[in-house]
From TrEMBL:
Name of the protein this chain belongs to: 5765_t:CDS:1
Lineage: Eukaryota, Fungi, Fungi incertae sedis, Mucoromycota, Glomeromycotina
Keyword line: Membrane, Transmembrane, Transmembrane helix
Segments passing through the bilayer: 28-50, 70-88, 128-147, 159-180, 192-213
Natural source organism: Ambispora gerdemannii
Superkingdom of this protein's organism: Eukaryota
Length: 247
């Protein structure tokens, strides 16, 4: 129509620019860097079942042990700390905050994994499994919500869409967990690997989405503080599998 201007494409462009500006505060690995971090964690979990910890060669061939309290504290701080930094830096952007929290899923899954791979019965196996899997499911849902926010237009009434997606995700989680319990295979390497891939699918998605929004496939933050935070997080994820017990 004469005099009519279609502003929808400009609105979409504005939304993309706004998202790009907000995601620049993200202080965790994404893109190729994030995918490498994800893959190394997967390999580390697999190797614990054959007693070949990736970064603890002095423990190769020996029975797997849980981390000592001091090392557990250090690895937790270096993993959770960058997530807290990202939450503060991106305090106006819930999408980035939820995605960052979702990146803690491998940390909680590692705790659950310790409850199954340990050979010594010290009475803590059940606690590790219950806490680890509960946190894994919760963190997965949070991370998935963050990923969904990248696709939902905040100008529309998207409550129904979000609630529906949450319901579908929860159903998938419940079915997967129930199937594994009934087949008594949660303690096997194969089932843990499958569970890891399912529970961290939102992390892979967030790595790709953030790389597209920032047009930065390297996944390294543009500012110094963001770079330091991402590197610390990467190191923290490796420290989760470091055992300083030389005996």
């Amino acid at each position: 129509m004469p005099g009519f201007t279609d502003t929808s494409k400009y609105d979409n462009l504005t939304q993309v620019i706004k998202l790009k500006h907000e995601t620049e505060c993200y202080g965790l690995p994404y893109g190729v860097f994030g995918l490498v971090c994800w893959g190394l964690t997967l390999i580390s979990i697999i190797l614990t079942y054959v007693n070949i910890p990736l970064i603890s060669p002095w423990r190769w061939g020996k029975k797997y042990k849980r981390q000592k309290p001091a090392m557990l504290f250090i690895s937790a701080v270096t993993t959770i700390g960058p997530v807290i930094y990202t939450g503060i830096a991106c305090r106006a952007d819930w999408m980035s905050i939820l995605m960052a929290i979702g990146q803690l899923t491998p940390w909680s899954l590692k705790i659950a994994n310790d409850g199954y791979v340990i050979k010594v019965d010290d009475g803590l196996e059940g606690t590790y499994r219950a806490f680890g899997f509960t946190m894994t499911i919760l963190l997965y849902i949070v991370g998935w919500l963050g990923l969904e926010m990248a696709f939902v237009d905040p100008k529309t009434n998207s409550v129904v869409v979000i609630v529906t997606m949450i319901g579908l995700v929860i159903c998938l989680l419940c079915y997967t967990y129930y199937w594994a319990l009934m087949h008594k295979c949660l303690h096997t390497c194969c089932s843990i690997v499958i569970f890891y891939i399912l529970m961290t699918s939102q992390i892979v998605g967030s790595h790709i989405i953030l790389a597209l929004l920032n047009k930065n496939w390297s996944g390294i933050a543009p500012d110094g503080a963001g770079q330091a935070s991402a590197i610390i997080f990467f190191i923290g994820k490796r420290l989760l599998f470091l055992d300083l017990d030389f005996n």
